[in-house]
Write a structure and sequence with these properties.
The chain is α+β, with helices and mostly antiparallel strands. The chain has a single domain (14-114), classed as NE0471 N-terminal domain-like, CATH 3.30.2020. Helices cover 19% and strands 30% of the residues. It has two helices and six strands; from the N terminus they run E-E-E-H-E-E-E-H. The chain starts with 15 loop residues before the first strand and ends with a helix. The structure holds zinc ion. The site of zinc ion (ZN) has 7 residues, from loops.
Length: 115
Amino acid sequence: MGLLDDLQPASPRIRPTSLSAEGTELVIDWSDGRRDRLPMLLVRARCPCASCVDEWSGKRLLNVTTLQPDVAARRLTEVGRYAVQVGWSDGHDTGIYSWELLRALGDEHARRQKG
Ligand SMILES: [Zn+2]
C-alpha cells in the first residue's frame, strides 16, 4: 500500500452508461446495473459549485427554500470522464457533478424512499 492507494475512489470503474432528464427526474443507468431516478430538486439543491457551497468551510450557501420546486435540467454536458455539468431551468449552470456525487445522491434518495 502506497500513499496514492488511499486516494483511489472505492469503485473507480462504476460510471453512468446513460444519463437523461425525464420530466422531474434525472435518470442514471450505472455500469454496475443500478438505475437511479433522482428528483431534479434534490440534485439542484446539492449543487457543489463555489456559489452554492463555501469552498473552504464546506458550508452550504444556497438557500434551498428559494429554489423553484419544478426546477429542471435543461442541458447535460459530460466533463472529462468523471462528471457532468448541468444547466438548470433557473439559469444556474456552474455545478459540476462527479459520478461519486451522483452515486451518493442516489444512496441518499434511496434512504429517503425507505423512510
Ligand atoms: Zn451551484
